[in-house]
Amino acid sequence: MQKAIISDIHGNMEALEAVLTDIDYHGISEIICLGDIVGYGPDPVGCVELVRKRCKVTICGNHDIAVLNQAFGFNKWAKRAIDWTRRKLKPGFLSRPQTRERWQFMTTLPDRYIEDNGDLLYVHGSPRDPVMEYMDENDLMNVGFGPDNKVIEVFKLVQWVSFIGHSHKPGIFIYKADKDDYAFIHLWDLPDLRLDLGEKGKWKCVINVGSVGQPRDGDPRASYVVLDTDAKTVQYRRVYYDVELTRKKIAAVADLDEKLATRLEAGT
Length: 268
Known about the structure:
Strand content: 15-25%
Strand order of the largest sheet: 3-2-1-11-12-9
Number of helices: 8
Structural class: alpha/beta
């Protein structure tokens, strides 16, 4: 049983379509989206519609919530993009039924999804704060007093594996119960970008799947993961897409700053 887990599309239709094509090529029918369908990118309507049609489950991200309400705590470029996105998505008095259905879909997104009696947990931010909290490898820095209490609290909420997004930086947080040890695994440390998840009770993992539409790990390719529940493995996939076309679309929208386009090439 394989399923694809995607996150942080951010209105990037070219990246989303490329990832969906890759998912279809590998014969994977079940897709779970960890949120932030919109924000930053030039195609919020198309991305919401495509996610709504293709994903078995979609949970909400912080940009999705900001579009539905107000953008608090965002930099000025992100806020302008969110406000523009809201104008594109929010139905008016004479809007078509499809526009209303699309908005209703956004309003009903849950903040988490749980499978296999809690063994699999899906959130946008972290198991402790499913929408807003970031997890970073620096959280595991031990300066002589053990790991940050944040990490300890997070892993208490994880039964076996949790999938997250939000930071746009793929990587895996691991807790080895038999050694009471925490570690972070970078993609370059994974043979074939694949990890054996280990047996429940010995290992716990929090897996950041990276970003489809705006990677920030220095690799501009779209990122997502494939979970194989039979083999008990997870594998990252990186997918090329037409970055230049997305850049041109961003440049054509006055409310989307050029910075949102230039960072796509560098994956930062």
